[in-house]
């Protein structure tokens, strides 16, 4: 019998190996091309905490099936936990080579941002 992980279990077990994850709330952004530059997404029918974009950065080598499963799990948890509408959530997966990881991810987004990380890595570079 196949041993299946829950969405949350899959994400937790994969956290260190997969890299960084960013979740952004975009409700305060100004809509381009509007006469009133103070008009926001909220005034366009979106509700507070609706807009979420998640970026996962990981080393290359995982199959499209694994990346899709991860994206689906993140999407489902964002919708469930934050309460965003399904149409308001997007997930991006970026592959960063191991040779570029320190310069492009670790230094600027992890080491340079430790005070904002809700999950800190168990490694250092």
UniProtKB/TrEMBL annotation:
Gene Ontology MF term list: iron-sulfur cluster binding; isomerase activity
InterPro entries in the record: 4-OT-like_dom, TAT_signal, TAT_signal_bac_arc, Tautomerase/MIF_sf
Location of this chain's protein in the cell: Cell envelope
Matches recorded under Gene3D superfamilies: Macrophage Migration Inhibitory Factor
Annotated keywords: Iron, Iron-sulfur, Isomerase, Metal-binding
Keyword Iron: yes
Keyword Isomerase (UniProt): yes
PROSITE patterns: TAT
UniProt-listed SUPFAM superfamilies: Tautomerase/MIF
A Pfam entry, by short name: Tautomerase
GO cellular component: cell envelope
4-oxalocrotonate tautomerase-like domain segment(s): 53-101
Subunit annotation: Heterodimer of a large and a small subunit.
The name this protein goes by in its record: 4-oxalocrotonate tautomerase-like domain-containing protein
Organism: Desulfosarcina widdelii
């Amino acid at each position: 019998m196949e041993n299946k992980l829950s969405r949350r279990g899959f994400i937790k077990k994969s956290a260190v190996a997969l890299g960084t994850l960013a979740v952004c709330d975009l409700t305060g952004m100004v809509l381009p091309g509007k006469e009133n530059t103070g008009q926001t997404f909220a005034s366009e029918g979106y509700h507070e905490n609706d807009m979420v974009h998640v970026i996962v950065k990981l080393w290359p080598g995982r199959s499209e099936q694994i990346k899709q499963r991860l994206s689906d799990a993140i999407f489902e948890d964002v919708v469930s936990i934050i309460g965003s509408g399904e149409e308001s959530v997007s997930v991006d997966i970026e592959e960063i080579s191991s040779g570029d990881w320190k310069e492009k991810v670790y230094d600027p987004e992890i080491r340079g941002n430790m005070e904002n990380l809700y999950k800190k890595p168990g490694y250092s570079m």
